[in-house]
Structures are given as C-alpha cells and as structure tokens.
C-alpha cells in the first residue's frame, strides 16, 4: 500500500472493500464495498488536498458489488431529477437514474407528485452554485407544505457542489436530506433509506477507481437521437483555476469493452450521434488489459508540458476512437473535452490495427473516418503566455497556435471551439488584448467564455490574488464575446452556398414550420420542414424526421446559426461517398 493511501486510511478518510474506518474518527461512517460513508451529524472530513492528486496512485482493488445493508430495501417512491452544468452532469443523471430504477424507484416529470427531488449540480463557478441555492429556496415552501400534509418530501444534492460544500449544504436551514458526491451514486438507495427514517445522510468520499463501468445509463435526452457516453472520470492536470480535480478526483478510465458495449446498445436503439465524455478524453488510458500495461507513454504535443510524470501502459484514446467508429457507419462520433497537450504532432502511418500507445493518430482518424466529426474543442483559456503560466496550462501562446495550424493542416475544414476565462488573477489590459488577438487569429466557430470565479481548494485560491475588479471582468468578458461573435460570423458566412450534412434533431424552437439540427462542425442549422427527395432513389417525396440525415444548402449565417434550403434526405455513408 502506498504511504499516502495508508495515511488516509489510518485517518479514517479512505476505505476499501471490507475495511472499516478508524475507531473514533471525526465523523460516524459506514464503509464497505465502493468506499462509502454516511454522515449523521458530526463534522465531515475536509477531503483531499493538492498533494494527494500530484502523487502517483496504485491501481485500485477490483470493485465488489455492494452487499445488502440494513435499511436499504428497494425504493417505491417517485423521483424528480434536475440537471445543472456540463454534459458530464447529464451523463451522471442518467447513471444515477439507472441505479435508482434498478432499486424500484419510478421517475416523474411532475415536481408536485415527487417523493424525492434530486439536483445534479455544478461547482465550476460561483454563479452555478448560486443557481442551486436559489432553487433550494423555491423548494423550501414545497417541502414545508408537504410536511404539513403528512407526505414528507426528501431533497438531495448530487455531484460537484455536493463534493465541495457538503457540510454547508446539510447545515443550512436543514432543508437537504442527502448529499452524494460524483463517486457515490451507487449508494443512493441506502442514503435515501436513511433519509426516510428522518436522518440526514451523505457520502462524499472520492474514489480512485469508480467509473460506473458496469452500469448502463438510462438515456434521458428527448427523442433519443443523440447520447453521451462517459469514458473516464476525474482530472490530473491541476490547472490553478480549476475545481474539477477536487470535486471529481483523479483520472481513471473505463475499460474499453464496457464503452463498446454501451455504444452498441445505443446503436441498436437507433441513436445517431454519440459524444464520448471526460474532463480530459485524449488522456484516456484503459489499464484493464494486462498485455498493454507495459506500453510506452505517448508523447505530448510539441511545446506542451504537464505537472505530472508521463503515465506508461494501457490502451489509449486512439484505440478507443478507432473501435467506437467501427461499430455503426451511420452513427456520428464526437468527443469532449480534450486537452491541447495530448495531440502530438508527429505524422504516423495509420494502420488497420492501431498501436495502443499512439494518441498522435487521433487527428488522422478524424480525417479518415467519415463518421468521426471534423470538429475539435481546443480550450485555450487565455491568449497571454504570462497568464497561461499562472493558470498552469502547460503551454505558451506560440505552442497553442502551432497546434492549431497543425490541426487545420491535418483536417481540412475542421470546426474549432474553445474556452476562455476573462479576468484571471493578475491579468493586465495587455494580457486581455492578447486574448482578443488570439480570438481574431484563430476564428473559432463555437466559443464558451466566462468571467473568472475563484474556487476554494484550487492553487489560485491558495497562491494568487483575485485582483481584477468585477466591473473590469465584466467589461473584458463583453469584449471577448463581441470579438468572438464577429469572427464566428465570418467563419460561418464562408459556408454560405455550400451543402451541409445535418443530423435532424427536431422542430425549431422559434418556428413550427422549421426543423433544426447540427452539421458536422456542431453548428446549429435551421431549414424548412418540407417534403424532399430521398437520395436512395425513392420516387415519393419524404418528410425529414428526428434522426434522419439531410443535405441542406446554406443560404445565410450568423455567429451561432446557419439557415438553408432542404435538398434531400440521405445517409451518412452515402454523403461521405459523394463528397
């Protein structure tokens, strides 16, 4: 056992299958398979700090199925789920619901008839957390009314905010009954059983090996046209502004076999687009196959570095992407979010069977496979090398731009998206203008831009000063958004007159006479809901349905949307053959 893990276990903060916490620990806990704990009024542990994530970790013990426990009988209540934040939270909602459904709970879309309300939360910015506090105030009246009527309502907070603010959530007005961190969803039936007895309960311990690989999420997206598949959890990058390593823990990857099983199931259900999810997908590393555990660590993109040592062994993201793209030629594959460091720029001949240690083949796969979308998310965060260093991003502005040029050379016509933070610690006006100039130079198709929000536990919280005034952050953010929209509009206007392959998602929100979908570059496309020819040669005209692929000739463009005329219904393979 590693020394740091032994120390955590001695302190009662880490449990493995069959192990009990140290007697006299600060909280009362019940630990068993899956590293679980239950809070019943005493102080919760502060959780892992920076050093725990920077030190190496041994592979976790095989996960045992939880044994039945007292008070964990199958549920009979109705559950109402609300999801806030990123796509990972959408997937977490589906995992949580799969677990609850298996234990006898019924899902409802009517808040008024729910016996249990679960909020799957985000903690990446203060605004995201404030939305949850506001929602809890709205639920306070409902809970009081239900209590008076003799029909108790249980409220739970799940996900990242639960991990970060466990004690405050439970203490504030005693409104919340259960708190479950991202690695504790298996424990939800037991926690709900405890809450039913009138006690508050929590499980917020992070795991070194939990990936929910054996749980097939119950898809909740409307129409079933698209789906998210989680391939890994956690993050080891430790960017100085980011709370994710402290709310979702260390990186660990699902076995490829379980991912392929889920994607095949989605294909059988008629899903036409799958997005592979993770905080850092292109550092994927499946260690479940013994024969690949000694494989060499892949190189980083030129000019990039990490705060951790290279990790040898395992099947890499290129192998996964190759295998997933072979399952269904009519299913689009996307992935998010990659880190720019994991796109090595050396050219490697693409073989039929990919080498497990060559993540540099990812760009070649995107270019050569017709069902892997020609779209990449390359989060820059800032255009200033000085700010990037303070953020611990591991690259300079010049290295990032070199990668962008390499990507565009490797994948002609690729659509690029990015993340940017306005007003990070110590950012000067000159730094801000460097970010403005990067937006203009790269000309992204899609952007996600936010003002900096300092988070406790992060390196920035301990080492840096949040010294950019709020009004300056707001002004800089507005400038970044304006510039992004100008350049995105120019990028999208270049598509006017071209035919775009669009996956139909459903009716347009603004007009019942129009349909909407997304093109290969993940840009929204609006077109008339009219009959059109079928490229298969059918004489009768057809009307496009959600899940169909159609060709649309673009007639106008804005920074966020393309509009066009419907040409015909087609297939992904046929469109690729004609291209």
UniProtKB/TrEMBL annotation:
Keywords: 4Fe-4S, Iron, Iron-sulfur, Metal-binding, S-adenosyl-L-methionine. Its EC number is 2.8.4.3. Gene3D superfamilies: Methylthiotransferase, N-terminal domain, tm_1862 like domain. Its cofactor is [4Fe-4S] cluster. SUPFAM superfamilies: Radical SAM enzymes. Residues 221-490 form the Radical SAM core domain. The keyword Cell division does not apply. It is an enzyme of class 2 (transferase). Residues 493-568 form the TRAM domain. PROSITE patterns: MTTASE_N, MTTASE_RADICAL, RADICAL_SAM, TRAM. GO terms for molecular function: 4 iron, 4 sulfur cluster binding; metal ion binding; tRNA-2-methylthio-N(6)-dimethylallyladenosine(37) synthase activity. GO terms for cellular component: cytosol; mitochondrion. GO terms for biological process: regulation of protein metabolic process. It catalyses: N(6)-dimethylallyladenosine(37) in tRNA + (sulfur carrier)-SH + AH2 + 2 S-adenosyl-L-methionine = 2-methylsulfanyl-N(6)-dimethylallyladenosine(37) in tRNA + (sulfur carrier)-H + 5'-deoxyadenosine + L-methionine + A + S-adenosyl-L-homocysteine + 2 H(+). Residues 77-197 form the MTTase N-terminal domain. PANTHER family: CDK5 REGULATORY SUBUNIT-ASSOCIATED PROTEIN 1, MITOCHONDRIAL TRNA METHYLTHIOTRANSFERASE CDK5RAP1. Belongs to the methylthiotransferase family. MiaB subfamily. This is Mitochondrial tRNA methylthiotransferase CDK5RAP1.
């Amino acid at each position: 056992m590693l020394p740091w893990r032994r120390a955590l276990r001695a302190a009662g903060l880490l449990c493995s299958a069959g192990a009990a916490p140290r007697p006299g620990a600060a909280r009362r806990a019940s630990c068993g398979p899956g590293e679980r704990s239950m809070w019943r009024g005493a102080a919760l542990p502060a959780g892992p700090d920076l050093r725990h994530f920077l030190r190496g970790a041994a592979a976790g013990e095989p996960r045992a199925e939880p044994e039945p426990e007292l008070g964990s009988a199958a549920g009979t209540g109705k559950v109402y789920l609300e999801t806030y934040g990123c796509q990972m939270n959408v997937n977490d909602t589906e995992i949580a619901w799969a677990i609850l459904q298996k234990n006898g709970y019924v899902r409802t879309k009517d808040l008024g008839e729910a016996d249990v309300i679960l909020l799957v939360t985000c903690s990446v910015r203060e605004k995201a957390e404030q939305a949850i506090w506001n929602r809890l105030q709205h639920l306070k009246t409902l809970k009081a009314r239900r209590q008076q009527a003799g029909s108790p309502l249980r409220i739970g907070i799940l996900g990242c905010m639960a991990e970060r603010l466990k004690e405050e959530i439970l203490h504030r007005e005693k409104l919340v009954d259960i708190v479950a961190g991202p690695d504790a969803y298996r424990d939800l039936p037991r926690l709900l059983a405890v809450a039913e007895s009138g006690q508050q309960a929590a499980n917020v311990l992070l795991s070194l090996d939990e990936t929910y690989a054996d749980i097939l999420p119950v898809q909740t997206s409307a129409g079933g046209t698209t789906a998210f598949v989680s391939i890994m959890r956690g993050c080891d990058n430790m960017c100085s502004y980011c709370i994710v390593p402290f709310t979702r823990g260390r990186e660990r990857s699902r076995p490829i076999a379980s991912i392929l099983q889920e994607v095949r199931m989605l294909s059988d259900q008629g899903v036409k687009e799958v997005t592979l999810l993770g905080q850092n997908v292109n550092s994927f590393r499946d260690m479940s196959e013994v024969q690949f555990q000694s494989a060499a660590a892949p190189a980083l993109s030129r000019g990039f570095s990490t705060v951790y040592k290279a990790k040898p062994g395992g099947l890499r993201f290129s192998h996964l992407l190759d295998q997933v793209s072979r399952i269904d030629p009519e299913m689009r594959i996307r992935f998010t979010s990659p880190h720019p460091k994991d796109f090595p720029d050396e050219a490697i001949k693409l073989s039929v069977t990919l080498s497990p240690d060559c993540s540099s083949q990812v760009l070649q796969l995107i270019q050569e496979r017709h069902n892997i979308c020609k779209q990449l998310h390359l989060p820059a965060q800032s255009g200033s090398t000085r700010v990037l260093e303070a953020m611990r991003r591991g690259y300079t502005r010049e290295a990032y731009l070199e990668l962008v040029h390499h990507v565009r050379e490797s994948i002609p016509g690729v659509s690029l998206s990015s993340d940017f933070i306005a007003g990070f610690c110590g950012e000067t006006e000159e730094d801000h203008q460097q970010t403005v100039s990067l937006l203009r130079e790269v000309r992204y198709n899609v952007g996600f831009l936010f003002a900096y929000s300092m988070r406790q536990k992060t390196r920035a919280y301990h080492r840096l000063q949040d010294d950019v005034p709020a009004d300056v952050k707001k002004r800089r953010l507005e400038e970044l958004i304006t510039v992004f929209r100008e350049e995105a509009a120019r990028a999208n206007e270049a598509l006017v007159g071209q035919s775009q392959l669009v996956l139909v998602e459903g009716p347009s929100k603004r007009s019942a006479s129009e349909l909407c979908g997304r093109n290969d570059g993940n840009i929204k496309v609006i077109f008339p809901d009219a009959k059109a020819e079928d490229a298969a040669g059918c004489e009768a005209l057809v009307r496009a349905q959600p899940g169909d692929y159609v060709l649309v000739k673009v007639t106008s463009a804005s920074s966020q949307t393309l509009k066009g005329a419907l040409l015909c219904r087609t297939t992904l393979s046929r469109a690729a053959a004609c291209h």
